Design the sequence.
């Protein structure tokens, strides 16, 4: 009798645990469910490991993802075929350079893309997205520089941003050494990498001694830590692979490595009434009739470094209009089932309103992290084909 009870309990537990919510609009529900279960399990394991004193939550996530990625890679063909791949450093920053092996016509320089990987500034190492980053130069025939920036929580803001900016400047300065036209170099990235690309693009508008960036090309970017009650956070914040709690954890690991204020951010109690009526709120919600507010006049709750949420190097959506107007032509990808959807949409609309050339591709069947497997996930393959097409036309 005991064995029957144990088996029944195990079956019920598995049925409950594997009952992953899948939005009706997702066209490959089994893929979404599998990813959701994987990332939900990863979260449970990471929190348990931290509670047991084994390692930090973020570090367990990173090690587990890298381990699973390495195992999966053994069952796939070599995704680097046709490329020369070199690991080196640019002014002390680790980078990986992907160059097409095919001979390029003499005197005809290639285009270049400096790419920043996603993973919440903490959860994913550069190696884990090697396949995605190799795909771009293979299809585009360009030179891609992937930046292995320092990760949170051991390295907090502005470490990741600083590494990305340093690497971008170095490549622009030495582009011709890689047979790249320095006037045809852009920046790109996915998720947290999209955040870094947008932040670098804004900073480069202030640089006079470097060629202007040709494009910024952002894939479901994280752009603001101001409002965690947007419609997309409300509608999809309970869904894996990117829940509201996890996204706020990423922001806090990057900001100050202190998750004790997570609930304050989740309820938007990290901003004041004055801020909620200011131009900063208007950058995200264009329906707000905002009152101009100087950053120096803002009083924040007692959360370490919380004023950084208005720094465009940390949250690019908070850049002022004068800087936004100077940005290069921009590509923004957003997905319907993604807590980051609304800020990507708001950014694209704002740039367009300020006169920046924008292409915004929104995927009604898309979800965050879909780009993790462009061979299996249909919407990911479509998105990357469109991404490469944009770069071919605009780099």
Sequence:
């Amino acid at each position: 009798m005991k064995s029957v009870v144990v088996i029944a309990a195990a079956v019920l537990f598995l049925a409950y645990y594997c009952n992953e919510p899948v939005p009706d609009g997702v066209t490959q529900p089994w893929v979404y469910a599998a990813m959701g279960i994987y990332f939900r399990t990863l979260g449970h394991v990471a929190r348990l490991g931290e509670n047991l004193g084994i390692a930090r939550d973020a570090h367990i996530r990173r090690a587990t993802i890298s381990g699973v990625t390495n195992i999966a890679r053994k069952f796939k063909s070599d995704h680097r075929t046709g490329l020369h791949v070199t690991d080196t450093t640019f002014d002390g920053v680790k980078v990986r350079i992907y160059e097409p092996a095919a001979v390029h016509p003499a005197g005809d320089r290639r285009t270049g893309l400096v790419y920043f990987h996603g993973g919440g500034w903490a959860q994913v190492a550069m190696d884990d997205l090697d396949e995605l980053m190799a795909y771009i130069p293979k299809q585009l025939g360009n030179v891609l520089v992937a930046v292995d920036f320092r990760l949170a929580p051991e390295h907090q803001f502005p470490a990741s941003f600083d590494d990305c900016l340093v690497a971008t400047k170095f490549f622009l300065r030495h582009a011709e050494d890689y047979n790249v036209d320095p006037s045809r170099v852009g920046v790109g990235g996915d998720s947290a990498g999209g955040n870094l690309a947008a932040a670098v693009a804004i900073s480069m508008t202030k640089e006079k001694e470097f060629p202007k960036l040709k494009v910024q090309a952002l894939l479901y970017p994280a752009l603001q830590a101001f409002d965690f009650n947007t419609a997309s956070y409300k509608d999809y914040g309970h869904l894996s692979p990117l829940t509201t709690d996890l996204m706020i954890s990423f922001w806090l690991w990057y900001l100050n490595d202190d998750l004790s204020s997570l609930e304050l951010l989740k309820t938007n109690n990290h901003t004041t009434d004055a801020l909620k009526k200011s131009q900063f709120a208007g950058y995200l919600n264009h329906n707000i009739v905002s009152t101009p507010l100087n950053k120096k006049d803002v009083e924040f709750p007692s959360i370490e470094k919380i004023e950084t949420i208005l720094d465009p190097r940390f949250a690019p959506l908070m850049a002022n209009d004068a800087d936004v107007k100077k940005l290069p032509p921009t590509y923004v990808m957003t997905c319907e089932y993604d807590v980051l959807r609304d800020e990507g949409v708001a950014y694209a609309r704002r740039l367009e309103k300020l006169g920046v050339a924008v292409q915004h591709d929104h995927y009604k069947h898309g979800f965050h992290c879909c780009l993790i497997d462009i061979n299996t996930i249909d919407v990911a393959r479509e998105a990357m084909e469109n991404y490469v097409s944009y770069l071919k036309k605009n780099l």
Observations:
- Residues 227 and 268 are 6 Å apart (CA to CA).
- The beta strands are 83-90, 93-100, 110-116, 143-147, 180-190, 216-219, 330-337, 358-367.
- Residues 79-103+110-395 form a domain with the Rossmann fold fold (CATH 3.40.50.1820).
